[in-house]
Write a structure and sequence with these properties.
single chain, mainly beta
Length: 120
């Protein structure tokens, strides 16, 4: 069952911007804290930003503060990550999920993610 479909990634030069989108399936996510995560090659997945059901930002990773912002549209069950002033260290596969990640009987559910590559 596909619960999260991420899109909007791509190749961008340092200093550029991207807007990621996540379409979720299931009304439960409209009342959940949602997060954007990323995983760089050889690294563990990390939480980048999280947003409460009412639209308040509940967490932002220190290295992206002031550059990334998270938002949501509950009517569309869609979640966004606006990324500005990108640098090569932001290169990763980006995923959305609840925070903490959605889990059923011990199994976490993840989408396919969207690749963000920051390079000249």
């Amino acid at each position: 069952q596909v619960l999260f479909v991420e899109s909007g990634g791509g190749l961008v030069q340092p200093g550029g911007s991207l807007r990621l989108s996540c379409a979720a399936s299931g009304s439960i996510f409209t009342i959940s804290t949602m997060g954007w995560y990323r995983q760089a090659p050889g690294e563990q997945r990390e939480l980048v930003a999280a947003i409460g059901s009412g639209g308040w930002t509940s967490y932002v990773l220190g290295s992206v503060k002031g550059r990334f912002s998270i938002s949501r549209d509950n009517a569309l069950n869609t979640y966004y990550l606006q990324m500005n002033s990108l640098n090569p260290e932001d290169t990763a596969v980006y995923y959305c999920n609840t925070n903490p990640p959605y889990r059923v009987r011990g199994t976490e559910y993840w989408g396919q993610g969207t690749q963000v590559t920051v390079s000249i």
